[in-house]
TrEMBL record:
Subcellular location as annotated: Membrane, Caveola; Membrane
Subunit structure: Homodimer; disulfide-linked.
The keyword Cytoplasm appears for this protein: no
Pfam families from the UniProt entry: GDA1_CD39 (PF01150)
Cofactor(s) needed for function: Ca(2+); Mg(2+)
Annotated source species: Triplophysa tibetana
Protein known as: Ectonucleoside triphosphate diphosphohydrolase 1
The protein's role, per its UniProt record: Catalyzes the hydrolysis of both di- and triphosphate nucleotides (NDPs and NTPs) and hydrolyze NTPs to nucleotide monophosphates (NMPs) in two distinct successive phosphate-releasing steps, with NDPs as intermediates and participates in the regulation of extracellular levels of nucleotides. By hydrolyzing proinflammatory ATP and platelet-activating ADP to AMP, it blocks platelet aggregation and supports blood flow.
Binding site residues for ATP: 203-207
Length: 496
């Protein structure tokens, strides 16, 4: 009995010091693991939202963006979650009935209310940016343009979001924010490995933006950004009146000077298919500040197609004025442009048209051949081939494709050699290529000038490291314990 008690007293596991030590070590390990998990854990994925209305010349689109709340300043986090196309034409078309401009936005804004969680409504910023259609209306009738902007402002203020303003954005902003969008979505700012130029074609204006190798000779065409610790010195230009709808009007006005019949009522056009014959109103075609020399057409005229691509290209070339340039190089209309450099993303109508014509890949020569074939196809065959496409869109693709090839080759000076550098894109990931995302990122300061500090280890790595470390401590402790017990038992046996 006495011997047994002696063994029990000598067993180290039963010593209070040992038990206290075990408890303390276990408590330390549990605390370390808990702190590591709690301190470094992902905050539950809460999203924030932003709304941008793109009030273009031809239509308005409402874009909803979302991003994880705790990753506001990490590039590549913002994505487009919803788009709503406002029914009807662009807001500039409401110049005579401005109150209807605001009303036209209601359906899409109601949709936005449904899509964004109610708790987030008050902090969700709403921006409306109007582009070339409103720039033209302002030139034509400033009072009407103010009334349209007031109407959309009143309408947007009625929603539970945080309205941040409705304004006509500058052409430079439109170009630069389109560039920011495509490079943000391609993750080029974080990688700092070269950027993508941006080509945007709308109904009333077109933008070209890229980082040139040459010096930028005109101050009007430069814009500087410091993003993620890198400086970007951009060339950008927006050509008002060179969107595809306005160029169609310019080119019709030009043709009306020499292709009218003796009754002045028929306008023959090589950019429309043979057999195309449509009665149009003079006002609809020529009532724009872009057409300076109005011709003497009657109130109504008949637009007749000739389906001749080569002639069409000749007529389109006439809208580019290459007669003067006070810089070392110009694109057209006396506008400075350095040589195009690097890869480009071409979006909006560049994509709609080239995608329809199946010209988003292949060489410039292929594109010209296909256009020649397409334009010479009779109108009745085209209508038969594409029964679901609106006649207005369908009738204009020969003109639009020809304009795009001419603008890129003769306007911006792309060649057969660098044609492959143009990628015709609609979206990058989930988000549309266009100026709206870049506009919002800029106004919400979501791309910091300096790259944020990155943690030494990602969250998952840190937690795994702590768990492994703890297991290792446990194992060592256990092995030490086994070793200690064995050595004390051997000692006891020796004593016995
Ligand atoms: N599926 C589509 C959609 C649009 N379009 C044409 O593309 C042009 C409009 O392009 P968009 O980028 O939407 O122009 P806006 O933003 O309205 O105009 P802007 O940027 O000049 O203000 C219009 O001529 C329209 O007819 C097209 O050919 N096919
Ligand atoms: Ca546009």
């Amino acid at each position: 009995m006495d011997e047994q008690r002696e063994v029990q007293v000598k067993n180290p596991c039963h010593r209070p010091v040992f038990l206290i030590l075990t408890a303390v070590i276990a408590a330390v390990i549990i605390t370390v693991v808990s702190i590591s998990v709690v301190q470094n854990k992902h905050i539950l994925q809460k999203y924030k939202y932003g709304i941008v209305l793109d009030a273009g010349s031809s239509h308005t689109s409402v874009y909803i963006y979302e991003w994880p709340a705790e990753k506001e300043n990490n590039t590549g986090m913002v994505r487009q979650t919803h788009t709503c196309h406002v029914k009807g034409k662009g807001i500039s078309s409401y110049s005579t009935i401005p109150e209807k401009a605001g009303m036209s936005l209601q359906e899409c804004m109601e949709e936005a209310k449904q899509k964004i969680p109610v708790a987030r409504h008050p902090e969700t910023p709403v921006y409306l940016g109007a582009t070339a259609g409103m720039r033209l209306l302002k030139m034509d009738n400033e009072d009407a343009s103010n009334k349209v902007l007031a109407s959309v402002t009143n309408s947007l203020k009625k929603y539970p979001f945080s309205f941040q303003g409705a304004r006509i954005i500058l052409g430079q902003e439109e170009g630069a924010f389109g560039w920011i969008t495509v490079n943000y979505l391609s993750d080029n700012f974080r990688k700092a490995m070269g950027t993508l130029g941006a080509l945007d074609l709308g109904g009333a204006s077109t933008q070209i933006t890229f980082i040139p190798k040459q010096e930028i000779e005109s101050q009007d065409n430069t814009i500087d950004f410091r993003l993620y610790g890198n400086d970007y010195h951009l060339y950008t230009h927006s050509f008002l009146c060179f969107g595809k709808d306005q160029v169609l009007r310019l080119s019709l006005a030009e043709k009306s000077r020499y292709t009218l019949d003796k009754n002045n009522s028929t306008l023959s056009d090589p950019c429309f298919h043979t057999g195309y014959n449509s009665s149009k109103k003079y006002m609809d075609v020529f009532d724009t500040p872009c057409v300076k020399e109005k011709s003497a057409l009657p109130k109504d005229f008949i637009h007749v197609g000739l389906g001749d691509w080569a002639e069409c290209q000749n007529s389109v070339k006439k809208v580019f004025d290459a007669s003067h340039c006070r810089y070392s190089t110009c694109s057209f209309d006396g506008v400075f442009q350095p040589s195009v450099e690097g890869k480009f993303g071409a979006f909006s109508a560049f994509y709609f048209v080239m995608d329809f014509l199946n010209l988003t890949s292949g060489t410039l020569e292929d594109a010209k051949l296909k256009m020649r074939r397409y334009c010479s196809t009779p109108w009745k065959d085209i209508v038969q081939r594409y029964p679901k496409i609106l006649e207005k869109y369908l009738s204009e693709y020969c003109f639009s494709g020809t304009y795009i090839l001419t603008l890129l080759e003769h306007g911006y000076k792309f060649t057969s050699n660098n044609w492959k550098d143009i990628q015709f894109i609609k979206k990058i990931g989930d988000s549309d290529a266009g100026w709206t995302l870049g506009y919002m990122l800029n106004l919400t300061n979501m791309i910091p000038a300096e790259a944020p500090d990155v943690p030494l280890m990602p969250h998952g790595g840190y937690v795994s490291f702590m768990v492994l470390f703890t297991l290792l401590v446990f194992l060592l402790f256990f092995l030490a314990f086994l070793y200690y017990r064995r050595s004390t038992r051997t000692a006891q046996k020796d004593i016995i």
